[in-house]
Amino acid sequence: MVALATSVHASPGVYALLLGSGVSSATGIRTGWQIVSDLVRRAATAKFPDDPAAGDAAADNPEAWWSEHGDGQPLGYSGLLEALAPTPAARDALLSGYFEPTPEELADGRKAPGEATEPSPGSSPEARCASCSPPTLTVCSSERSKP
């Protein structure tokens, strides 16, 4: 661990730190599982609009609800998104509220960029761009880009 820490410190821009979905929870952004549970709750509410308890029941046990009422596949983030929002534009619209802050959330200091989102000095252009946009998948190469 010390060797890795030393290498990261001595080689700015060479390493990328990929963190789990819970790293942003302190800012008010839900974890991946919390988003999945809420999406299942929303799907249940839409599927059974006359049942006011449907959403809460689905949120209590999202895997069981999805198994019975979903697309026939095991509950997972990618499959759930594909079933609920099959196009990129629909996925953006569906997920933006989980990541994009409202003016009230920003005023309360929630969903706001913090120290952890700032790229380190000497970091790659990809890392600098990552702090400027909503969460996206970034594929990192172990080799530096050559000019």
Detailed description of the structure:
The chain has eight helices and no strands. It is mainly α. The longest helix has 16 residues, at 32-47. It has a domain at 31-107. The radius of gyration is 19 Å and the shape is elongated.
Fold blueprint:
Layout: H1 2-10, H2 32-47, H3 54-60, H4 62-69, H5 77-84, H6 88-99, H7 103-107, H8 125-130
Helix pairs in contact: 2-3, 2-4, 3-4
What's the rounded overall pLDDT mean? 78
Q: Report the major sheet.
A: none
Order of helices and strands: HHHHHHHH
Task: Characterize the overall form.
Answer: elongated
Q: Which bin fits the share of residues in helices?
A: 40-55%
Calculate the terminal CA-CA distance, rounded to whole Å.
Answer: 32 Å
**How many strand segments?**
0
Radius of gyration: 19 Å
Note poorly predicted spans.
125-147
Give the helix/strand class.
Answer: mainly alpha
Portion in beta strands: under 5%
Number of helices: 8
